[in-house]
Design goal:
Elements: E1 40-42, E2 47-61, E3 64-71, E4 79-82, E5 87-94, E6 135-137, E7 159-165, E8 173-178, H1 185-190, E9 195-199, E10 214-222, E11 248-251, E12 258-261, E13 266-273, E14 280-284, E15 289-294, E16 297-305, E17 308-310, E18 315-321, E19 326-332, E20 335-336, E21 341-342, E22 345-352, E23 379-387, E24 399-401, E25 413-416, E26 419-427, E27 433-437, E28 442-447, E29 450-451, E30 460-463, E31 468-475, E32 480-486, H2 489-493, E33 497-503
Parallel strand pairs: 1-4, 2-5, 4-9, 10-13, 12-22, 23-26, 25-33
Antiparallel strand pairs: 2-3, 5-7, 6-8, 8-9, 10-11, 13-18, 14-17, 14-19, 15-16, 15-18, 19-22, 20-21, 23-24, 26-31, 27-30, 27-32, 28-29, 28-31, 32-33
């Protein structure tokens, strides 16, 4: 949340401490103040021209003052709202080297050389952890020049002018932005550097959706040292404190905020998982979640669900209709990642109160989805995600795709524009890996060899332990180079990433 909005953050936690005691259960924390949404910056006359300044600073967070890394002094950053056909201009200003005094020696904010495998093209000097750049996750825009070019570096003390031209036919929905400077991504996002992008459009005019009140829920998770500064996530057990069970699980920078709805009222919730490594199994007590979108893509029909799995980088949009008057928890249920089970926690509290409304019919049919399962394919490819030992064991035995650690100078897949390919994404490890690809969405057509009904296209999908999914993707509009990777960002930083080169 922003500094100005932080005065009323719930004082839940151990006063004077920067972390919860092991026996303090944050899932039982009492509901706090009303949910506060990030500042919205919207386009006008076809243009959104804005600034995002990345800095390390102190903010009120979960009942204490926390030293975090954020955009524009806000945890999460401002919401950027545009329309198809708009131009989005972002001046990224990097002040991550301007540090407050008194940080612990292990602080991830202290500028130091990037470690781990991988090389970036056109890099003339060693990368530092306070270098950064900007990725617009999920947008179908050019990967070259000053657009969604994750091979760029914006060094500390410098700025860079990004410009993204949103295609006129771009799908409307929820997207997001975050750093993508290889080797430095994990701790920057763990510190709070993330924000939402909303593209308005066709879905917003559908009956049952048009005019419905919206809520934006940005799910973030972080962990603090006793002095209140964000921990270094690579300082892992058994030697360090960064344990998922100790994370603060925040919604818009708040701990268990309250939302209100009238009985019978319909609301549209846009939910973003902006964490570096937490998978949520979302459930709203006493209510169903009526899913209408996934990763910025509208479903072909409303999908009513009791719970939804949301991995790092994924987004969903759901309709919620207020039930009987009362108080209900939006919670994440225990979820097995393969090696561990992520804990349950109450994320927010929904209060159903006020004069009842007559419930409007929920939409059924939404927007057509092209079924790529019947398309002619130009090529088939297989990519296997693998990992070995884990820090604090030697860092050179880490994470690979097809037995290779990331190398930004290598082309792992050379494709042609206006062709459709079928990729099999395999997981050779005992833990989930969320697969993400830039620039072009895809359709999952099979999971572990079993056909998947067509519902939507997406850009991020969990690969089950020792499992696989088959997807089809069409490369359109933009030549150039981009990447695919595991969206557990520590895995990406340590080599679980490959490159795509699209030829005209």
């Amino acid at each position: 949340m922003t500094l100005a909005a932080g005065a009323g953050v719930a004082a839940i936690g151990t006063a004077g401490r920067g972390m919860f005691l092991p026996w303090f259960d944050i899932s039982r924390a009492a509901a706090a103040e009303e949910l506060v949404e990030p500042e919205v910056r919207a386009s006008r006359d076809g243009l959104l021209d804005t600034v995002l300044t990345a800095r390390v600073m102190a903010l009120p967070l979960a009942g204490q003052t926390a030293t975090v890394s954020v955009y524009e002094g806000s945890f999460p950053g401002p919401t950027l709202r545009v329309r198809p056909g708009d131009a989005l201009r972002v001046n990224l200003v990097n002040t991550l080297d301007a540090l407050p005094s008194g940080l612990p020696q292990t602080s991830p904010f202290i500028c130091s050389p990037v470690t781990g495998p991988g090389h970036m093209p056109n890099s003339t000097e060693h990368a530092m952890t306070c270098d950064t750049n900007l990725h617009v996750h999920g947008l179908h825009v050019s990967p070259e020049g000053n657009s969604d070019n994750i091979f760029l570096t914006v060094k500390a003390g410098e700025s860079f002018q990004y410009e993204y031209q949103i295609p006129k036919n771009h799908p409307a929905g929820l997207y997001w932005y975050h750093p993508h400077r290889h080797g430095a991504v994990t701790n920057q996002v763990f510190g709070g550097m993330a924000g939402s992008i909303i593209i308005e459009g066709d879905i917003d005019a559908l009956p049952g959706i048009a005019g419905v009140p919206e809520r934006l829920l940005v799910l973030q998770a972080t962990h603090l040292y006793p002095d209140g500064s964000v921990t270094n996530i690579v300082d892992v057990p058994p030697t360090g404190p960064s344990m998922q069970k100790m994370y603060l699980r925040l919604v818009n920078g708040q701990l268990n905020p309250t939302m209100t709805i009238r009985p019978g009222e319909t609301q549209r919730w846009r939910i973003l998982n902006a964490t570096v490594n937490v998978t949520y199994l979302l459930q709203l007590d006493g209510h169903q979640l009526h899913q209408i979108a996934k990763d910025g893509n509208t479903l072909n029909e409303t999908w009513t669900r009791d719970k939804i799995t949301l991995g790092p980088g994924e987004r969903v949009e759901v309709l919620v209709q207020g039930g009987q008057a009362g108080t209900y928890a939006l919670r994440t249920l225990p979820f097995s990642t393969g090696l561990t089970t992520q804990k349950d926690a109450t994320l927010a509290t929904l209060v159903v109160d006020g004069d009842p409304m007559t419930a409007e019919p929920l939409p059924t049919t939404l927007l057509p989805v092209e079924d790529l399962s019947t398309a002619d394919i130009a090529a088939q490819r297989w990519f296997t995600f693998q990992n070995g030992t884990f820090p604090p064991l030697p860092a050179d035995t880490s994470f690979w795709v097809n037995n290779k650690a990331f190398d930004g100078t290598r082309d792992d897949a050379v494709v042609r524009l206006n062709t459709t390919e079928e990729w099999v994404i395999r997981n050779a490890s005992g833990t989930w890996h969320p697969f993400h690809i830039h620039i072009n969405d895809y359709q999952v057509v099979a999971l572990n060899g079993q056909p998947v009904p067509v519902r939507y296209h997406e850009d991020t999908t969990g690969i089950p332990p020792f499992g696989e999914f088959t997807m089809r993707t069409r490369f359109t509009d933009f030549p150039g180079r981009w990447v695919f990777h595991c969206h557990i960002l520590l895995h990406e930083d340590h080599g679980m990433m490959g490159t795509v080169k699209a030829l005209p």
